[in-house]
Amino acid sequence: MIYYSLNHQSPNVSFAEAAVKGQAPDKGLYFPERIPTLSKEFIQNIKNYSKEEIGFTVMKPYVGESIPDDILKQIVVETINFDFPLVKITDNISSLELFHGPTLAFKDVGARFMSRCLGYFNRNSQQHTTVLVATSGDTGGAVANGFLGVEGVDVIILYPSGKVSPIQELQLTTLGQNITAIEVQGNFDDCQAIVKQAFIDDDLNKKFSLTSANSINVARWLPQQLYYFFAYQQWHHEEPPIICVPSGNFGNICAGIVAYMSGLPVKHFIAACNANDTVPEFLQTGEYKAKQAVATISNAMDVGNPSNFIRIMELFAQKIENLKSLFSSVSIDDAVTKATIKEVYQQYQYLLDPHGAVAYKALDDYLQYHTNDKGFILETAHPVKFPDTVEEVTGVTIKIPESVQHLLSKSKKSVMLSSGFEAFKDWMMQA
Ligand SMILES: *Cc1c(COP(=O)(O)O)cnc(C)c1O
């Protein structure tokens, strides 16, 4: 598979080069030159395939010759070695639970796939690669866990001190080995600014081979398609589903649309946003206006200029009318999100996290006007990662899942730095 830059000013590249570079030299996002078509036989008999067979079949055309088949198979097996259950909440709404991975967030799949690809591409290199990533909570944990122990790759995670939840902090700071956590005395934007500055700093680039692990990387973006195939394996209704995805940078939902375009039956996609309503507004006005992000209780979706939206537009030939035939987007505020968590818990004893609650509300509203349809939400994080909100509105103390119990006895190790680039650079140059 060949990848081109959406800015059209850089040479085409292979999967390997796109994954190692992250972004094209012209600052465009890489995009596959064509969307492969899956056979009808494969879709119709999807229930008879194992998760691993689906993973390999779907990913193989995108990876092409960059990775030999036996190694790609192994990467797929390690990427998806947990459950993706589709759980019924009401007669019409189910929840695709994507929080059964090691860091309890859907980002595990993309991070695990990408880290193993980079480990393979780096296998003969003398120089270590240093992955720099800023996180508001979920990304850092998934990336750290995904890259833990990968040879030749060091990971440095910057997170805002005091602004991630206790479980998230333990996931970032207790791994050791090739993972270092930097606790920045500032907010997420300060962390992000440091990382951006680092990528263009001459001294750091001389000393380190730096790369990023954010969702614009094709090796993190494309494997997210697999959730949608796993959901369809468990879909027992005649009509295809309405799929509602809580969206921030729009990488996850964009991967779902790619799956649809390669043959997966889907009736409609809804991108559910919090107060950050750049895309819902675009669909209404036809004019795309990036905004400053505002803080909400579903903070992994606090994005004012979603980086992957350009990829969605590319899938629809950059035409808004085409997009609207399959896709809608709405904004749900914090008050409604809290009321939804409470209501769904009281009526159905199902505990949503704030991101899943945004999606639930958006889908429920849609189904009021499409009474013959059924659908599911993507539940992107475990509620225990956002205990303050969930416990406040439901009164329930959330049980910590067994898979993360071991974290509680570990001690946090982090490097505390003041915000601002110079402190970070000094620390790096001494490292
Ligand atoms: C990252 C994240 C999202 C947003 O996903 P995008 O692909 O950026 O749209 C939603 N929910 C949770 C819990 C996340 O961590």
Automatic annotation (TrEMBL):
Start and end residues of each Tryptophan synthase beta chain-like PALP domain: 97-365
**Entry's InterPro entries?**
Ser/Thr_deHydtase_PyrdxlP-BS, Thr_synth_N, Thr_synth_N_sf, Thr_synthase-like, Threonine_Synthase, TrpB-like_PALP, TrpB-like_PALP_sf
Quote the EC number. Answer: 4.2.3.1
Reactions that this protein is recorded to catalyse: O-phospho-L-homoserine + H2O = L-threonine + phosphate
Spell out the family assignment given in the record's similarity comment: Belongs to the threonine synthase family.
User: What GO molecular function terms would the record report?
Assistant: pyridoxal phosphate binding; threonine synthase activity
Q: What is the lineage of its organism?
A: Bacteria, Pseudomonadati, Bacteroidota, Chitinophagia, Chitinophagales
Q: Which EC class, in a word?
A: lyase
Known Pfam families for this protein? PALP (PF00291), Thr_synth_N (PF14821)
Residue positions, PTM N6-(pyridoxal phosphate)lysine: 107
Give the source's domain of life in one word: Bacteria
| Keywords on record | Amino-acid biosynthesis, Lyase, Pyridoxal phosphate, Threonine biosynthesis
State the name under which the record lists this protein.
Answer: Threonine synthase
Which gene is annotated as encoding this protein in its UniProt record? Answer: thrC
CC cofactor? pyridoxal 5'-phosphate
Q: Name the pathway it acts in.
A: Amino-acid biosynthesis; L-threonine biosynthesis; L-threonine from L-aspartate: step 5/5
User: GO biological process: what's one of them?
Assistant: threonine biosynthetic process
Threonine synthase N-terminal domain location is 3-78
